[in-house]
Design goal:
The complex is a heterodimer of chains A (277) and B (286). A 4-stranded mixed β-sheet of chain A has the order 8-1-10-9. Chain A has a two-stranded antiparallel ribbon with strand order 2-3. In chain A, strands 4-5 form a two-stranded antiparallel sheet. The longest helix of chain A is centred in the C-terminal third of the chain and has 23 residues. Chain A is built from 7 helices and 10 strands. Chain A is elongated and about 85 Å long. Chain A has 2 domains: 222 residues, Alpha-Beta Plaits; 45 residues, no CATH class. Chain B has one domain: Formate dehydrogenase/DMSO reductase domain (Formate dehydrogenase/DMSO reductase fold), CATH 1.20.1630. By secondary structure, chain B is an all-alpha fold. Classes of the chains: A alpha+beta (277), B mainly alpha (286). At the A-B interface, helix 2, helix 3, strand 6 and helix 7 of A face helix 1, helix 3, helix 4, helix 5 and helix 6 of B.
């Protein structure tokens, strides 16, 4: 078995060039969606079956003439499927189309998926999208085909600033720890690693160095990073109790006899109006 | 406060249709069984009607569910593991959609036998069969709500009450449907049965109302209730609450313009249950 691999995305040096998006689309033959032009630099919109990488632009500029120190006003992050150790999508998938590969990445088997889309409602990162052309769901494969040929994923290969680094998780964790220490020493107090340890979904195969709180980047914090199965017990219990009460209600109602009801079913019954016992 | 960054699965009209019809099918089967267990012998005609409608309803629902898939011809992948080298059955007890796929198959088999029995194609199997089928029916009517809750979608994952809400409303709609159908034939002889069904619908309506309260309470606790207050959803919730007037008024033995009975009352109740599914399913996604 190969050693587990992954991505370390250092948002502090992302320049928002979108080379990763382009390289991903080129390699994975993704035609992309119609670009959206709004009040910002983001014309991709979100992660989905056409965008396995998505460069998020978070505008925190407080005013026209007030510029925060570098790394604080404009946040850019090359977002991607997190390849969670405990993956919500894999947990709910009824066809077992979503599997963990030999590289410890999360992969959707296109010939098994039937497009039920339950994984989309489960993924807390919005990383999965429905592909209208194939009728299945799609997301980052971490360039599974390239890994098999000992090549690094296309996005990491194309990133000009080394914001996206690919390697073994052991090696990446060391690099991330060192980079965080450097930033902290330089006074960036809000800098933090996201998904480096196992507190978020058992650890992320694609983890991040963030310059602000996770929710600022659209990532759930520890309190909100829950697996779907957390609701199994409460939901089934509720359904069971209400079903049981429904049966009791039926027992009470159907044992009721209307006063004018004849004893023999063969005899004609008189109308009873609203009922009563 | 719960924060969500998930995308909607775009479960829309086909899924709403399936959730609605699965509830009606399951509810009709359960009510037919309860009429046989605790009703009078003259309720047998309505019980038969319940068994007659359950199977076609679940078949149409299953067709809608299949059509909603991106790859409808792969519907059987829900049951059989087609991953190379795996084989065997797909049964993930921790995934409600997987469990529900099996629940749908099991209930459909029960409904088919009861349907054939109601048509006189086969001999009566017995009340024990109906009771076991009713357990599958209750599961079918409720698991759809559990599927929603067991996700990371806003609203759905913020409430554990959707399964109970769906089963209570399914029983209510089914009681209204069977009361209406039973009165269509010999109205005079069906009147006692109709009265019992209306009484049951009143109880089911109370349960549904309690579950709506639980649903909103859980959303308030999660801090996501504001999403349900968008004008369009609020308007639908008002209609859902109004649709509870006929069964609750029946329970209070009030009749008249504000508490319609007969086909109008049944249609209002059934329509309200459909709208309930619309607002819960669409309200979380858009």
């Amino acid at each position: 078995m190969p050693e587990p691999v992954g991505f370390f995305t250092d948002t502090s040096i992302c320049i928002g060039c979108k080379a990763c998006e382009v390289a991903c689309k080129e390699w994975n033959e993704l035609p992309g969606n119609e670009p959206k032009f709004g009040d910002g630099f983001d014309n991709t919109g979100q992660l989905d079956a056409q965008n396995y990488r998505h460069v998020k632009f978070v505008d925190l500029v407080p005013g026209d003439n007030i510029i925060e120190p570098a790394g604080g006003a404009w946040l850019m992050m090359a977002d991607i499927c997190k390849h969670c150790t405990h993956a919500s999508c894999m947990e709910v998938c009824p066809t077992d189309a979503i599997v963990t590969t030999e590289y410890n990445t999360v992969y959707i088997q296109q010939d098994v998926c039937n497009g039920c889309r339950d994984c989309i409602s489960a993924c807390p990162y919005g990383a999965i999208g429905f592909n209208e052309r194939t009728g299945t769901v799609g997301k980052c494969t971490m360039c599974y085909d390239r890994l098999q040929a000992n090549l690094e994923p296309a996005c990491a290969k194309a990133c000009p600033t080394q914001s996206i680094q690919y390697g073994t998780l052991t090696e990446l964790h060391q690099k991330a720890d060192a980079r965080l220490a450097t930033l902290k020493a330089a006074g960036y107090d809000k800098a933090q690693l996201y998904g480096r340890d196992d507190s978020i979904y058992g650890g992320l195969g694609a983890f991040f160095l963030l310059m602000n709180k996770p929710e600022v980047y659209g990532l759930p914090d520890k309190e909100n990073a829950g697996l779907p199965r957390r609701n199994n017990f409460g939901s089934y219990l509720n359904a069971f109790v209400v079903s049981a009460l429904g049966v009791v209600a039926g027992l009470m109602a159907f044992r009721m006899r209307v006063p004018e009801e004849p004893a023999e079913p063969s005899q004609p019954a008189a109308p009873s109006g609203g009922g009563g016992d | 406060m719960a924060e969500h960054f998930v995308q909607p699965p775009h479960w829309e009209w086909y899924i709403i249709g399936y959730f609605f019809l699965a509830g009606l099918a399951g509810g009709s089967y359960v009510i037919a069984t309860m009429l046989r267990l605790w009703g009078s012998p003259r309720d047998e005609r309505t019980a038969r009607l319940g068994m007659l409608v359950a199977f076609p309803l679940v078949v149409v629902g299953a067709i809608l569910l299949t059509v909603d898939l991106g790859q409808p011809l792969r519907f059987w992948h829900m049951l059989i593991d087609t991953t190379p080298g795996h084989g065997g059955l797909n049964f993930k007890y921790w995934s409600p959609i997987s469990l529900g796929s099996w629940g749908l198959v099991v209930f459909s088999l029960f409904a088919l036998v009861s349907f054939a029995e109601a048509l006189g194609w086969i001999r009566r199997v017995g009340i024990a069969f109906d009771v076991i089928g009713s357990l599958a029916a209750l599961f079918l009517a409720s698991y759809t709500g559990v599927v929603l809750s067991v996700s990371n979608q806003p609203i759905w994952s913020d409430s554990y009450a959707i399964g109970g809400l769906f089963v209570a409303s399914a029983l209510s709609a089914s009681a209204a449907l069977l009361a209406w159908l039973s009165a269509r034939g010999d109205a005079a002889s069906a009147a006692p049965t109709e009265a019992r069904l209306q009484r049951a619908d009143g109880y089911f309506g109370v349960l549904e109302l309690l579950m709506i309260a639980a649903f909103f309470t859980t959303l308030a606790m999660a801090g996501t209730i504001g999403r349900m207050f968008a004008p369009v959803w609020l308007a639908i919730w008002v209609l859902v609450l109004l649709s509870l007037v006929p069964p609750l008024a029946g329970l209070a033995r009030r009749e008249g313009l504000l508490a319609p009975s007969g086909p109008t009352g049944a249609l209002i109740v059934i329509g309200g249950v459909f709208l309930l599914r619309c607002v819960v399913i669409l309200g979380a996604q858009f």
